[in-house]
Structure formats: C-alpha cells, structure tokens
Fold:
Amino acid sequence: MKARIDKLRKVLVAENIDAALLAILDANDTATAPSVRYLTGYSGSTGAVFVTRKTSTFFSDFRYTDQAKKEVKGSKVIISKKPPIESLADLKEAQVKNLRVAFEANRLTVEQRNNLQKTLPNAILIEKNGMVEELGICKDKFELESIKGAVAISDEAFERILGYMRPGLTEKEVAAELEYQMKMLGAEKQAFDSIVASGYRSAMPHGVASIKKLKKGDLVTLDFGAVVNGYCSDITRTVVLGKATAQQKKIYNLVARAQMAAIRKIKNGADSKAVDGAARKIIEKAGYGKNFGHGTGHGISLEVHAQPRLSPKESKPLKSNMVVTVEPGIYITGWGGVRIEDDVVVRPAGCTVLNKAPKNLLEL
Structure:
C-alpha cells in the first residue's frame, strides 16, 4: 500500500496540493469509496484516510478497531470517538493555515462537505474527483489475479444456473440462485444487483430481476458479477428457453459479431472510441443502430463501472493491464433483447478474454 500512497503523493506534488482526504462515511457498500480500499486495504464501511506529502493517517471508530488494525497497511491507524471527518480536528498536520486539501466531491454529500470545511476552517478545499481511480487504471498482479478469480466464479455460476433455469421460475428466483452459487464458490458478495430479464423484459438493458415468470421461448439475459478481494467481474450471457426462432438467432449472431469486432480492436494504444465504433458499425449497418443505445464497455476495478469507457462520447488510449468489459447489445421494445459481455485485459499486442463461459446461443 505504501507504493500506492507514494503514487498519490507524486500527484499532489505535481498539482501543488498539500494533502488528500478520501473517505467512506457510513456507506452501505464499500464500493462507494474504492479509493480508501485501494490506498489502505481497508474493507469496512466507515473510515477515512488523510494523506500528506509526508504522512498517511487512517481514521475509523470503535466498531472497526480490530478490522482496521488487521487490514490497514501503510497508514497510521487512529480509532476515534468522533466521526472520521471530525477527527481531523485533532490531527496537527491537518490544521495548517491555507493547507490545500483535495477531496472527492462525488463521494461526499453537501452536508459532509460542509462538515469538512468546519473541521478544517483554515484549509483550502479542492474538488478532485477520480484522483485515485486514475492511479489504479492499469492493474498490478494482485489486482489482475483478483479480477481473474471473480471472473472464474461468475463463469462457474453461469454453468450452474443453466441446469436450474426452467419455465415457471421467476426472474428473482433465478437471480437469487445465481447469487447463492457465487457466494458458495467463494465470492465476497455480488458485484451489483443481478440482472435477469426474460421475454419482452430482455429489451431493458438494466432489467433488474422481477417477479415475471420465465416462459418457453423467452430470451433470457443474465448480467451479474462476483467480488474477490474487493475487485469485480461483470458478465452477460443471453440464452433461449427452448428452441430459438430465426429472429432470435439473427439478432444473437449480429451481437456476437459486433462483440468480436470490438475485442479484435483492443490492444495497447487503441482508441477507446474506435473500439466502440468497431462494434457499433456492424450493428448500425444491419439497421439496428437505434437499438444500441449504450457504450460498448467500461473499465472494472474495485467498482464495477470504472475508467476507461468504450463509448462514442469518449476517446482515450487504452493501456496494457487495463481491464475492460465488451458488451454490445440490441434491444427491441416489446420483443426482447440480446447482450453478450466479457471481461478483457488489454495487452501490448492484443488482449486476453478472461471469461470461459460459452458464447454460442444456448437453447435450454
């Protein structure tokens, strides 16, 4: 963790910033502040780390005494009776006049930001979103192994769910079984609310599982992920309950071609917008451009949606050891939809697809 903190210090020096505050404040999910876990290793739901050019101090409360002492590396641990932000009032290096303190504005509420200013009345607060996310955009060995582990769990959970799904089950029952299997396979938790969308609901890109029952002939889209060591996987597969129709096969094969075109485009130095364009061009040429309304992919890390974005709206060079999803889709209101998604590691001369789950159209 010291190496990661030192990387942040280089950013502080380069941008004339004296300190950085990263915080998790009574979060329901530690993924709401992945920067804290990235810098310290702490996985609890309340805490903050204050990094200056010379020191790094972690704050939490009594509930996390043992956890913080066990998990936090590279920072001094202080267990305080005060909330993490208010604890800065007792930290000498935080009370320097005109101290330039960077914080993640997108991680704090307005009330929490105001409390920070009250606690550091002499400081100059600087909004600096993404300062830690950018440090970890290219994954180290531990991060890659963690993501690979999460992918392996999601792949196996998919294999298991194939033998479970049948007409009459609700989407929620399928989602619950998926999540159960991931935990039984060793996942810390699910990476996000599992999407199980069947029949006409498969036209909803984020169709979180409902009480709708699966029916014979339905397209069923399954989008889910596992968490290992805090790191996420994100997989989507679309199957058919029964024999696929000619239209279902046509749309599925079109999405599969688009996905492969994007995957073939990925390598160190490739433009993220061009990767998106490779998939989008195939779908648009077939006349379904209006039915593909989201980006082709996104980074995955301690958050399931991270930088970089494979999107027509963002142009960024990909770098080796970035991990991105590739997930084009076609969604037709009232009929259904198809999405296929893999997790991919950028390499110097190509990429590695981590998922091993089958991608041919499965007729269950």
Observations:
- The chain has two domains: 2-127, 141-353.
- The longest helix spans residues 141-162.
